[in-house]
Every structure is written in structure tokens, then in C-alpha cells.
Amino acid sequence: MSEAAIHHDDHHEHHPGFIQRWFFGTNHKDIGTLYLLFSLVMFFIGGAMAMVIRLELFQPGLQFVDPQFFNSMTTMHALVMIFGVVMPAAVGFANWMIPMMIGAPDMALPRLNNWSFWILPFAFTLLLVTLFLPGGGPAGGWTMYPPLMLQTGDAFPFVIFAVHFLGFSSVMGAINIIATVFNMRAPGMTFMKLPLFVWAWIITAFLLIASIPVLAGAVTMLLTDKYFGTSFFDAAGGGDPVMFQHIFWFFGHPEVYILILPAFGIVSQVIPTFSRKPLFGYESMVYATAAIAFMSFFVWAHHMFTVGMPLAGELFFMYATMSIAVPTGVKIFNWLATMWRGSLTFETPMLFAVAFVLLFSIGGFSGLMLGITPADFQYHDTYFVVAHFHYVLVTGAVFALFAGAYYWLPKWTGHMYNETLGKWHFWLSTISVNVLFFPQHFLGLAGMPRRIPDYAVQFTEWNMVSSIGGFVFGLSQLLFVVVVIQCIRGGAKATNQVWEGAHGLEWTLPSPPPAHTFTTPPKVTDSVAHS
Amino acid sequence: MSANQGKKMALKLALIPVAMFGFGYALVPLYDVFCDLTGLGGRGVQQTTADQIDPAGVDRSRQIKMEYLTSTNGDLPWAFKSLTGTTRIHPGALNEAHFVVENTSDETIVGRAIYNVSPAEASIYLSKTECFCYTEQTLEPGEKLEMPMRFVIDTELPRKIKGVTLSYTFFETSDSRGDKAAKKTDDEHAEAGSRS
Predict the structure, then answer these.
(1) What is the pLDDT of residues B69-95, one digit of tens each?
(2) In total, how many domains does chain A have?
(3) A467 is catalytic
């Protein structure tokens, strides 16, 4: 169908130089690659910080780093992993896949796209140089609560402006994605035919443009409190530090769905492919995703049950939080039902996707436990919280990103990746990540607080286990880099469809796709649509 | 073709983040309203005068356990404590508690006490006729100051509230010591005072 258009393009293809292509380029595929490589680099920077944390926590007492540096490691690890790894990787997938999935030649605003990406390296330069400033990096936690955050030294304005830049980047990226999906769909690609990954991203994009500016406002208030004499959060001037927590989490809770919804989208592509069945309950998936996103704006105070809210507030936020488990349960059910009686095979993407469903559910359940107000008074700020959000973010978001990377690598590079190494990567990661995070549940329930470089001796054994799991998990990720490099360099030739059970417009294109695809809109038939 | 539509839509969409940035700031007055309604942050406390208290309106049928907490913020070198221990009072009666603050440094320092009430709901039923928290306190090196605080708890106080804790924290406001607090203008303090 679109073959003719592609060949036509090949002859006229303009071959830009290296700098022209990678620095000034506006091609959605190249920008997608840049996003993904950037997030891979940041994954190892943030991972190195996690290694420092686990090394220090290997045994009680202070061994390797001083407490201030330890706290700046926990702070920076979070900022790097959230804003530098999970979000850019999800945007990278969106850039590569959304135009190919909806039959568009490129993103709606290609030059804005280039700008969105190139802000990121500057923002992270600002953030990472703080480690070398006098006074060190920010150490008040990624949530930046005043008054502690206001005691940050020279690093303070760097962090604030880095957050502003990151906000600009993701808001522009989100606007671009919405504009693309609403205006650039191929004829016949109706909204209810969109692949679920695209749906997940539209909803994520709306969350981004509605919540990131609130964070920008909150950090701007911090900035003016510190340097311009305002008293938004300063009790001495009539402000209230608790108000920061409300404003921050009004952004912060939608943010956690910004991190996980694209992952839901990826898994919803991968599972049907390797189950050789259409996705079960497509429409309920769309509505459940939208419901989760909408409800995420009304649950923020479950992050701050212990600040002293009125009883009615505690109850409202508890019930609202628990009710999010309903649409999330719908999604888990649909993934399981898709696999039910499917003709399953377990290639690496499927392994990561199945592990995602299982392990994300563990994180979901510990989330329910934390959502119970009276129980939360016990769990608040302990390692139980750390275990919870690493289950949803590492075995949740990051595993889904791995699933997506293995799933689409053959399409991107034109080569099959090394399946044996991929499986090694999966099994080492899955075993070690549980050794790493599962004991943290026990530590948290026993009362070990987060963000402290030392601990009471009774916590030693599980911390050692956790650290060993951490080191193995960290090292295992090097295998992924090997797989990616091998796959870019060569390997068995990938077919257009790559996977036997893959359906959708992107699989009608050659692997790798030429620089310009769908310059003539494709014809959308039921056989190439999602189901 | 649709690229132009895309640009138009992007411009319209850009209004959402602009509006939401504003909404972030709008949360500040909204939070104030919320605090006024719920009494959160001690916001419900009223200022009154002794002659407005009806001596006949004392509810002798129940007692409320009052506790007084004192603290100083940051490195403020003041020793601040309550001279009144836990007391049991009747709603409707005028009560007095005494506090003492001493400047333990060799500098003159200006400070101001900020208060809070727990449970927050109780603050709506609390009125003060006199409080050192309404004005700034200036203490010479080594100066010691005893400060009274008079208050009444309304008889309407819900029966489920058996005890009320009043907490005071001294913040430094002096210009002379050149720290962050010094940058606060008098206007803001006046504003903070008017909310009390």
C-alpha cells in the first residue's frame, strides 16, 4: 500500500550531515532516538546514585559518604529518574511510534519537537553541576518541602530553574503530541481505532499540560520566598509550609500517572501481540485510563495524611484514593483476559510485560495499604513507601519501557536483538529487583525511616540483602546496553511485521522505516488497525 | 494541510498551561479560605475584649484540658517557656496563661510569636483578649520578659473536644542580624497580624 510512496521518497531523500541531522533535525524518528538515548544515559547516572545509596546502607553506621551527600544522592536520584529517565523515555517512544501508528508523516510541530528535546540536556547540566558547587547538591528531597529546601545553598536556584526548564520541555512535548493525534491521523483512523499506546499518551499529555505548570508555580513561590521576601511558605510572614505540600502534590499525584500511563499503553501493545489475540476490552481500557487520569487530581492529600487534616479531609482522600483501584483493576483484568486462552509465546518483550502486570500489582496493593489513613500513620516516610513506589516505578514503568524497547528495537534498527542476552537481562533484572525491593517492605513495616544514611542494627540483614539485590540489578542493566548496541550494529534481518502477532500501521512499514514515512496517508483497514 | 491546524491547536492548548500556572497561585487564597472555614493553622481564633465576655455564660458542666507548647524557630537564641502547666478550664470563663521569654544572646533581637491550635476545629471557638503574639517583642541582651495571654473558649465548643493545645513559636524578625527573616517587610507582618 504505502510502498510506492516510500520508494518514491528514497530516491529524493535528502541526506543531512551528522550535525544537521542530530542537532538541528526535526525528524520525529531521530528526535525519538535522541530522547531514548538521553534517557538511557540518565538511567545510568541516576543508577550510579542509587548504587551510592545502597552502598552506604549496606551496613549500619557511616561508611562511605557523609549524610549531606547521602541526602543529595536520594534527592538527585529521584529527580534524575523521574524527569531524566521515565518521562523522556516515554516521550521518545511517543515520538517514534505515534506518527507511525496513526499514519502521519511526522509530528504536528517538528521544530517545537526539536526544541523540547534540546532543553533537556541543558536542564540536566544545570541540575547535575550542583553536585560540584560549594554546599553540594540539593538534599531536601525531590519533593522540595520548605523550610528545609530553603536551606539549600548555592544549588537552590539551579534546581529551581532546572525544574522550570524540564517543565517547559514536557509541556511543549505534550502539546505537540495532542496536536499530532488530533490533526494528523490518516483518513479512517478514528479515535476508537487508535492503538492503546496512542490513547494512553493523549491522556498523559493532558495530565502534563494541566499539572506541570502547578509545579512551576510552586517552585517559583519557593524562589521568591528565598530571594524576594515573599512569605508563601514562611510562617513568620503569615505563610504556611503545609500549603507547599498541597500545591506540590496537586501536581505530584497526576505526575505519578504521567509516569505510568505510557507504560500501561506499551504493555497494552505488547500483550496482545504475544497472545495472538486482540486486546480484551479495548473501550473499557480507554475509559479506565481516562478515569484514572481524571481521578488523579482529587487524591493528592493521601501523600500528607500526617500533616493534621480535618477528619473529613482524611476520609475523603482515603476513599478517593481507594476508588482509583477500580479503573486500575479493570486494566489488570483486561491484560489477564487478553492472555487467557491466547497462543502465548514468551519473547523478551512479553516476559517484561507479564512481569510488569504481576509486579506492578504488588506495588498497587502496597499503594492501597498506604491509602488507608490510619495505617498510613505507621507507614508514612518509612521504607515501606520506598518499596511501594519502586515496585510501581521500576518493575512498573521501567519494566514496561524495557518491554517497549525490546518490542520495537527490530522495527527501529531493522535487526533482531539477541534473544538469549535479552532473556538473561530479563531474568537477572526480575530476580534481583525483587531481592532489592521486597525486603524494603519488611524494613518499612519494622519502622526504618527513609532518607537517613544510618539505621538501627536490627535492620542490618535485610539492608544487606537489599543492597546485594541492588548491585546485581545495577550491573544487569549493562546487558541491556550490550543488546542495544549489538542490535544497532547488526543481527538477523527483521521483517516488516517483526512479530507474528503484531498488528497496526507501524508494522506495515519496512524495518527500519525510511526517514520519511506516510507522506501519502495510508488506507486504514480493520486488518491494520489495532484489532 | 493539517500542519496549520496543528499550529492553531497548539496555540490554543498553550492557554491551558498558562491558566494552570495561574491556578497554582490561586491555590494560595483558596487555601486561606479553606483554613478560615476549618480553623486549620489556628486561623479561627478571634480577638475580643474582656467586657464582651458574659460572666453568667460559663459552662460549669464540663472541663477542657488546656496545654501550652512553646518553641523557637531555627537558631533564635531565646529561651521560651510556659509558666502555666496543664490546666482544666470551663468553657465561657476568662482564663490566663503566663509565658516567659529570655534573650540568651548578646545582641538585641526582635521576634514574633506565631501560634497554632490543635485540634484545628477548636480554634473557631477560641477568643483571645490579650496575646503577646499580636505584637513584635524586642529583647535586649539578657532581657527576660514575662507575658500574659488571656483567652476564653466558647460554650458552643463541640462536646467531643476534651482537650485543646495552644502552641507558640517565636520567629526572628530583626533587621540587625541580617538573616533571611530580616527581609520581611513590616507590611507583611501587619497582614499576618490582621489575619490573627
Answers:
(1) 999 988 889 999 999 889 999 998 889
(2) 1
(3) no
Closest chain B residue to A309 measured between Cα atoms? B40
pLDDT of residue B134: 75
**Is residue A18, in this structure, part of any structural domain at all?**
no
Residue at A230 is within a domain:
yes
- The C-alpha R_g of chain B, in whole angstroms, comes to 22
Q: What is the dihedral of CA A370, A330, A202, A266, to 10 degrees?
A: 90
pLDDT of residue B187: 42
Structurally, chain B folds into a number of domains equal to 1
Range of the domain at A82: 3-7+26-508
Q: Cell numbers at residue B137, please?
A: 517583642
**pLDDT bucket at B48, cuts 50 / 70 / 90:** confident
Cβ separation A310–B38 shorter than 8 A: yes
Q: Is A185 a catalytic residue?
A: no
Kindly determine whether residue B172 and residue A236, on different chains, have CB atoms separated by under 8 Å: yes
Q: Which of A178, A236, A240 is facing B112, going by the closest CB pair?
A: A236
- The answer to the question of residue A517 being in a domain is no
Tell me the pLDDT band of A487, cut-offs 50, 70 and 90. Answer: very high
* Interchain contact B189–A (C-beta under 8 A): yes
Q: Is B13 on the interface with A (CB under 8 A)?
A: yes
Range of the domain at B163: 39-195
**A residues 47..66 contacting B (CB < 8 A):** none
Q: Which residues contact A357 (CB under 8 A, 6 or more apart)?
A: A267, A271, A332, A335, A336
3-state secondary structure of B149: strand
Cβ atoms of residues A44 and A81 within 8 Å: no
Tell me if residue A227 is catalytic. Answer: no
Q: Chain B: nearest CA to A108, how far in angstroms?
A: 5
CATH of the domain at B56: 2.60.370.10
- A307 and chain B: CB distance < 8 Å anywhere? no
Residue B181 lies in a domain: yes
Residue A333 falls inside a structural domain: yes
Predicted confidence at residue A100, as pLDDT, reads: 95
The interface pTM score, or ipTM, of the predicted complex is 0.88
| Residue whose C-alpha is closest to residue A104's, from A511, A408, A412, A505 | A505
Of B22, B114, B185, the CB nearest to A229: B185
